[in-house]
Design goal:
heterodimer, A: Alpha-Beta Plaits, four-stranded antiparallel sheet, globular, B: two-stranded antiparallel ribbon
Amino acid sequence: MEIYVTIKGKVEPDKMAEFNGLFDLMVAGKTGAALETYGEDTFPAAESTLEKVLDKFEAAYDSINLESYTLEQGKLTLNFMGSYALEQILPDLQVWLLACGVKDVELEGNWV
Amino acid sequence: MTVREIEKPDMSFTEDLWWQKRREALWQQYCEFQYDGVRKSKLKVLEKYFFTGELESPKDHGRGSPGFLGSRIDTFPLRKPEGWDYVIYTFGGYDRLNLEMKQLLENKVLASLTNRGWTLEEELALWDHFLPERYQTIIKSPVFAKRQQSFLEGELHIDVVVMHYSVRVENILDGLAGSSPKYIYRPGYLLSAIEEITPEDISSIKYLDKNLQNLMKLCFRSHDSALPEFKYPIDNFIREFKQNMETLRFDPIVKAIWEDVKREHS
């Protein structure tokens, strides 16, 4: 079964460039060392929560699959695709986004 | 039988600064394309192996998975038979599914390694080290694996061989620079595989007939788009292929496909 999950939230306008950089890496599939390094440098307060997310994906032999995202005028939409692992890791993913500074995080799940 | 211990080959070349500089550029390429999902802690271990051939705690870094052996050969600093023998001896025999040799053959030996920085000479040396001159379904590793105290074995199916040639020869004719040209230097291996094709293979193996037909059709295509350095070798490959299709003993079903393709292009 595949799971499509949309996470919406709000981002401070002056932080949009940092978030674009983060999500561009994820959409390109660079979810290993490049994401960790970028996360540490740009969102140091969220370092441990990112590690937790990555640890959980690794334990499930899976990885974050961000299919696409939009970030316009502070409004963020992230479209993830995944399997059972994604479903289990969603709470940690939300905690990480909050730690990065995304506000009003909400799930709009399309469970297929 | 006593297993002959295979020592690590002389790796002193890895201390050469010029080699390190070139290796660094290749490492960046691997980080960009092969290891983009690999985390920092693991990447450090892979980097050390890439530059020295030393792998820390193999158990925690993929040993036991079918693709592990192929990856170790791909990234071992010494791209020579003595390097590959050492890798087979040291890292082979751990895959519980017993697919490591099959994956090594399909995904490394027969695959295009050009975009991983392998030269044509290195690719052909790898080919010749693992594949016999004539096609065989079961391939044995050139040396024992210490863990199993025996040779590793892997199946290589005809359709995989035909598919690799069909795709890559087409790439060469299209003039794609990132595709390995090694296939056109080994026409005999392909022909010996085609000699083994039976009517049962054609009816039961998906896409075998299509790939075979595509390969045959390529013999009648223009070579104009091929890169200049490959025009002569591709001419030779196609000439040898065509000649042998007329003279070797193939199953009538293979002959019929060849005759149809020829008729279409006459």
